[in-house]
Amino acid sequence: MKILVTGSNGLLGQKLVYKLKLDTTIVLIATARGENRLVDKAGYIYESLDITNKENVNAVFKKHLPDVVINTAAMTNVDACETDKENAMLMNATSVEYQIIALESLQEQNQNYKPHFIHLSTDFIFDGTHGPLTEDEKPNPLSFYAETKLAAEKIVQASKIKWAMARTVLVYGIVDNMSRSNIVLWVKQNLEQGKTINVVDDQFRTPTLAEDLADGCILMAQKKAEGIYNISGKDFLSILQLAHKVADYYKLDKALIKPSKSADIKQPAKRPPITGFIIEKAKRDLGYSPHSFEEGIKIMVEQLKRIKN
Fold it and tell me: Are 176 and 37 in contact (CB under 8 A)?
């Protein structure tokens, strides 16, 4: 099976590459804009790919004819999407259209070619009035980021190729070169430095370990799953509870964590207050089995140790 991953330099992209390259039954094509930033460059093909360039997408897809495309590439900075709407729409929706058009065209030219497009989406397409949510929940985006992600979902659902969608929530994990932070590392680093942090107590999520999300995507590819799947963590927590769990795990001072309200934190983009996912469908259909949040922190601790060594 040929699997092509977009956004292979990103958090999820890296986890997918490192897991898939171990499977000898898979030919893996990792793609991202610019150079390959992964430390381990063996066991897969790397292609520089700008998903916002239609000709580039056509050329790379035609060259490799992937059986499965896992599209992880996106502009995920929610506030940046609010201030740079043109790029947000290009990265998050138009690029998806380019990929779908390329695969549809290749499928029309070759009747034996049946590509499977697996797209990553987000809990932010919902308005956050309640949660956790099932796959049947009606989207109602609050931010421009969410609008672009919902637009992409509609493009995928209207396509003539086989498709599946992995919706996820608040992904955390460790990347090569530690080029980006996440909620867990942010809490840990600030508390270690003795800094007071304001953490919202009115936003609820099911935080997702990047390895678990990668496993969910791989299961979707292996089982040729179609339709929408919630792929997230299993623990429904407020962001404040999450921060407390990080402090407890590292034995750091919880008194430095100050509860605050979303309305008091000035951010350009509005966040849904309550999301989180019910993951029974993924468990039943795919055999998806995520770690607990504490187990996820432990996995990150081991990875941080390895990086330092």
Answer: yes
Higher local confidence (pLDDT), 177 or 109: 109
Cα–Cα distance measured from residue 11 to residue 23, given in angstroms and rounded to the nearest whole number? 20
Residue range(s) defining the domain that contains residue 232: 2-308
CATH number, position 111: 3.40.50.720
Per-residue pLDDT for 304 more than 80?
A: yes
Q: Residues 263, 120, 101, CA angle at the centre, nearest 5°? A: 125
Q: What is the pLDDT of residues 28-75, one digit of tens each?
A: 999 999 999 999 999 999 999 999 999 999 999 999 999 999 999 999
Indicate the number of domains in the chain: 1
Give the closest residue to 16 by CA, choosing from 295, 221, 211: 211
Residue 161 and residue 102 in contact, taking contact as beta carbons nearer than 8 Å: no
Name the token pair of 68.
């499965």
171 phi, psi to nearest 5 deg: -80, 135
